[in-house]
């Protein structure tokens, strides 16, 4: 809180007209300690005597009456009575002081914030430390005002600081605080805590005076003048201007100060009109919330806001009116958040954490307006405020959408409960809508009052067995109300500090749910044949309980669990008094876990068991998937949170029976159950819940566990059409492009949960062939994602080949079967993991055995592309590692190799471009197969193969010792090649040079045959000149591949085939020269001169080359005479 140095203004004017001058004469303003004469509390005596009647009466008056009313009621109040009232008016409980000086009572911030907070730095803990180390001094209580000094010890970085602290109080509540430390925070500083606790713990050491006005009434004129003058003298620098101003006003008859009877007294207590509440610095609350919001979730601001919400709940539980006051301040800052308008304008969604804060805000307002002791005028004021916020354009909607924030690409499909409505016509439900609606709820229903107030409320003679009967067949009370609303009542009772009443209502609601579940089961059993025949899958619950904004199942579960664990904090506090009967509020009587309330439990049943059963009923409810990303994420989040809570419970025999009972109910519940035989296409899937049930039931009833898990594997929303009998939503049969499915934003998460469920079953079924077969069938039927099936295949493989045991061949076969399904699913679609999948499948097949490898090669065309089949599958199968791994004999090796060669030839026929080389490699050891592969290459060379592929195969042939075949393929490759004049760095140049070298090495005829192809395909002068130079260095056919020279006759440049190559080279230089000169720039002149020098070398290789080059240069000078600088360089070099 912002602690201010100045004193708070006086609350009311004080005067004593009934006191006469003679009465005041001789009386002195003496002071006694708080625990002095007549004290009934706080003494240090070990023996305690009964409280006096004065103390009892004074304590009650101090708690309930403002002191002004006491003064008005009695003409004269004896001084001892005043002292005892003043004494008892200070708070006696440390709990409220702790609440206003730390985030959680008892310093539990660590658990709430999830951070390692140093508790010793919390104001309450620091205040205790200051008190216990003797840092509190000069404590004085004057009337309803407590003051003192608190010394903050010196530290390494800070000097010692003495803080003056002042506290005003009224009716056992601190109403204002000031401290000289200047600290600004929502909560009381450590110095205020230290002084307050000093007064609570050591009242006998506090000097107590009556209100200062009472003391002044006892003074005569001389004493009053002396008092004022001494006061001014001691504090003349601070009060002299004020004193003079007041004196002037008092001496002026017409001044405002003389028009008012009496004078203000800051120590005189509260007036009749003052609101009795603990001090809360509203300005600091607003500033802190504004700061947290501005940080946008960074620096732990989200956790800080959640802690503020927890503080509101704590205040409500203490029945502190500041709870609603503080929430109002928080809400105003939330509504003023500038990001709301920005997000609305941009059509973007708020962050998930921020969205959850808004949810908590709405839930808290629901609790506040459902306060069972709320006054009508108070509720009316809240309703006006809620409606005002609700009407603001940027007020967040309950489902997290802004209406038009996301374009609906699937308007042809119905969306949830309001599927037939246009999004513009749907009622906009904001986060405050439910709280506004709750303002119409009341607590006056007599049946409800009896449920809440009476542990003995039964009716064993009640025989009305209708759907909405008030009692069940056992005579126990039922409460029929919209389940989330009824649970909101429970939450409100808990929040406002009525745990026993909340428990009673929770039990009535749960018993009602159990009765409804039983009746629904009976109804379905009676009409099962008709329903199954018709295929009716209409949803029975448009509004699910798990993921609901009011979290009804979570509320019931928490209420019952807290009672089952004997949570003291949840069990203390007073109880509602709706009827004439009054009930004890003793904390000690609550620690027996409400024994009388147990009459509404089954024999041997506990609150914990009831909580677990409630959670199972809620999680198993068949409910429609809500609209919108946030609402769908909330369904998943709440389900996982509830299951996490269930996992903390250790299962005993009683709980196992409940699990069995609910599992049977869920399997046989028809359209009421998410695990029933009839399921609506857009129902929330049960994968996560079923996985939990499966794990819990497996050790106790494996058959039932598998029934649950297998039933839950379905995911009908991914089926292409709705079931034939589903006419409630015929739109689903329409194919909508690009997405034929409803807008399930969490579908990827749902599919991953489905995969997790399947993986759990596979793990559990290891060693059981029958179960594995059943699980495999379910996976193949229900899982539609190749990546998830691949994950399951990998999981099964890992489980089957654990190092500490022999491989499970059945599970390996399941793994292989799933892998084969993945291959078929991804064969014609792009998948970046495809190569990984293929390699893994071969590994899996290897583990299964040689027959599995042979099988996948036999049916390769349904599983792999030709490239995959040759480069990965066949190559791996033929590798030494595979042979060693399988311990194959020669016969088995040959059979496997034969299958691989057959596969390779088939692939080469189908895709020669990519598979021919692999086929040749695989067929090397079989002459017939190799020849077949070579012929396939030749057949494809003229049509479908590129020069790159042909050159690669040609080089392979040369390497394998087939130079003539290599030459043949090289000539075929040259026919596809085309190198233009400027492609002097083309990657195919090396292939051309290699082909010419190969031809030259084979003989004159081969070289003569390839040179025309080179001349036709290559227009690049530098490449042609390089080939020409190489051909003139050695004799054709006389140089082996390793350049072993022989003394043969060199080929003449004047005769074919080199004459043709020389002419083509000269022509290429001429053409290239003209092409380069067309767009040449000065910075390329020197490079061009070097190019002409290389051209001259080639020209000079001809017998008349000198003449040709001279004519060529002259021609250039004439044509490009405009390029004077360049032509000058040409003259300098070439004349």
UniProtKB/TrEMBL annotation:
GO cellular component: Cul2-RING ubiquitin ligase complex
Organism, as annotated: Onychostoma macrolepis
Keywords associated with the record: Metal-binding, Zinc, Zinc-finger
Chain residue ranges for the region called Disordered: 24-50
Biased composition, class Gly residues, residue ranges: 28-43
Pfam family, one: ZSWIM4-8_C
Molecular function, one GO term: zinc ion binding
Superkingdom: Eukaryota
Protein name (Swiss-Prot/TrEMBL): ZSWIM4-8 C-terminal domain-containing protein
Domain ZSWIM4-8 C-terminal span(s) in chain numbering: 949-1126
